[in-house]
Amino acid sequence: MTAIDVRELVVARGDFRLGPLSLAIASGSRTALIGPSGAGKTTLLRCIAGLDTPSGGDVAFDGASLFVGAQGAIAPNRRGIGFVFQRGALWPHMTALEHLRFVAPDLSREAALAGLARVGLDAAMAGRRPAALSGGEGQRLALARALATGPRVLLLDEPLASVDQDLRDELAQLVRGLAEEDGLTLVVVTHEREEALALADELAVLRGGRVIEHGPALELLQAPRTAHTAAFLSGATCFAAVPGANGSLQTPLGAVPRPVGEGPWSLVVLPDDLVACEADQEACVSARVLRCEPGLGGFRVYAYIAGRSVVFGSSAARAVGEDVRLALRAAPRVLGLDGEGAQR
Length: 344
Hints:
Elements: E1 2-13, E2 16-26, E3 30-34, H1 41-49, E4 56-61, E5 64-65, E6 81-84, H2 96-103, H3 109-118, H4 135-147, E7 153-157, H5 165-182, E8 185-190, H6 193-199, E9 202-207, E10 210-216, H7 217-222, H8 227-234, E11 237-243, E12 248-251, E13 254-257, E14 265-269, E15 274-276, E16 285-295, E17 298-305, E18 308-314, E19 323-328, E20 333-336
Parallel strand pairs: 3-8, 3-9, 6-7, 7-8
Antiparallel strand pairs: 1-2, 1-4, 4-5, 9-10, 11-12, 11-14, 12-13, 14-20, 15-19, 16-17, 16-19, 17-18
Helix pairs in contact: 2-3, 2-4
């Protein structure tokens, strides 16, 4: 069953445009909307929540339309949605306990205290207002408030942005654990790869107001279908690949086979796709070492090729400024930028 079905959604505001965009999110799944700033992630999340009204298209929950139809929308109290805003959006005049009982008036004091305890806020914090809470405690309160109404869907907008780095893993595991315990459909907006992987099993990659890839996180990491996804999720370096002689593509790493489809194309070089080679070996290119970091079983070396930084492994340390020769370890990976060009 599809819990959330985004259908040809369009939002147009001045120079910004989202969509047309369609996205199916399965019941009980955990999905991260990931992409750079301005890609449309938060706008999409707010449309799913019913906080923003699209210019066209619709969002449906288990087949019930949110925006289209005689009634115009599902009533907010019937949507079954909990929302955690980027910086909490807590009410400064209310205590932690009052936050929960305001959104869920039928909640007893004991049940509200239990709700706070679930997110790691003890009874001593129940009477505190947001100004007396740390960033992490504030986000825990925002999470408890979102869960107080017993939602079926939990939406989170950059939930770890205001949390210190050393607490992010802990809070991510708390969110994921509670979602699994309650059987929630989880949708989270983030521009951080590590945050997305900690919270979600499915990734929807946005670029320029469109979803360019959607699928299991491991699949998108290991076999991205676009150069943008490879660069954003896996730290790939993308080199322009332009038509050359005999149906090939010319790149700073030499000629590569031209795939079927229309361009533009990019040669996608993932970390460790390159290997050092002997100076007289064919199909090698010159690079200059930027830095060298020790690691397990050797060194991780960052080098400079045609104005771009690449990474390769080395059994020996390399000096900064050293000239090295590099070659592709395996067959070249040539992808379209955003799904409209070539596939591997």
